[in-house]
Structure prediction request, 498 residues.
Amino acid sequence: MSDDEIDVPAVKKQRIFYGSLEETIRKLEIEHLKKSENQQQQNINVSDGQYLDLSEDKNTERYQQLLADFEKRKKARTVVVPTNDAEVKARLRELEQPICLFGEGPVERRDRLRKLVAEFGDDVEKEPEPVTKQEKKDEEEQEVWYHEGPPELKVSRIWIANFSFPRANERLKKARVLQARPDAEKAAKTQELHKRLRALVNSCSQIGDDRPLSYCQFSPNSKMLATCSWSGLCKLWSVPDCSLIRTLRGHNSRVGGVVFHPQATVSLEPSVPCMASCGADGDVRLWNMESETPIANIEGHDKRVSRIAYHPSGRFLATCCFDYSWRLWDLDQLKEVLHQEGHSREVYHIAFHPDGSLTGTCGLDARGLVWDLRTGQCVMPLDGHLQKVLAIDFAPNGYHVATGSEDQKVMIWDLRKRKAIYTIPAHTNLISYVKFHDQYLLSGSYDCKVKVWTHPGWIPLKTLAGHEQKVSCVDISKDGQFIASSSFDRTFKLWSTE
Prediction:
């Protein structure tokens, strides 16, 4: 047989063999699939692609252990845990577990918390449901509460309301008259005032004590200046020659402030209390214009009293205390009628609205608060400073408030808009005092300078430089002729035009 000839039966046999091999492979694949299906039916799927082999005997220890492990994993998948990493750490701390393991990230930490919660079961508190806005509002409303005050407080509030309403009407009438004036006339008067302020010079400088001076204030008739110092002495000086009139002795610690009664040297009798002062030991003393010793003491402060202020009526005296509160004393009823809390740190300064209806306080908690004396409510928070707020004052227009802070800024607030309208980067050190006039604003600072700013506009007009150390206080005489400043260099200075 030649090479070209083919054995036909051999070819058929080979094809038959190949066909039987393909059928065999196909059968094996089918058996393997059936076996896999049976195996999956006997196993438990705990995650994608993962199975737990279970023994046919369900009473064995391994079977029970695998079943318990499966239950834990199943429960862990349904456990709700916080998504915020800070909350996750807090929950771990509640479970007395480490809040962070080496190399553990937020995702791993959350998974670990989920496993712990699944393991401890009902012993772990469930995550609280999110609180809706309405529930938050209801909770805030429930937190408001009132403390019953003495009967004298009601008498004082009614009296303050009757006193403030006529003054507010009078102030608004004057504002309307001023607004009705021609713009040219108002501009001319403003330019004349600014020209006079730019010409301010140091007209008198006097050594006030052998310790730093902490405060100064003009008398209502502008003919006297009262100063106090860390030596515990208060002194009265004549204006403008700055000669000593009287030394007031009675404090045993440094004095933080001395103020005149609004009607002292004008219509008030010299023998009645005309001045008040406060000390670091909590003493508040009242003085007349005739004696060198106090005629009365106001007791009740356990800590330092930093500042005091007379109500525009002269009937009430407000004190700022380092026990995080300020107090209102009724001098007619001879009693403390209000002990007001609200600051989270020491209260440092206080000022009254020109109408007598409001008062503003500021403190070392970096904020100010405006209070309605007729209702007792805090009507406006002054939040914006970054550091301690040491000075506050109301403008004569009735709706502007200035605050000075350790952040070296003076902020201007509008009571009508209930927000800050301007921030003045005023000094290179903390602001120790602010004082409003009708058309300008004074600021004193620990950078040893006093600055004059336009009102409104807040443009710098004049820098009064002359003190060698920190400026503690500034004031403006009632007639507008003089500006006084006291300093840690133990001197006070009078500034006026030539």
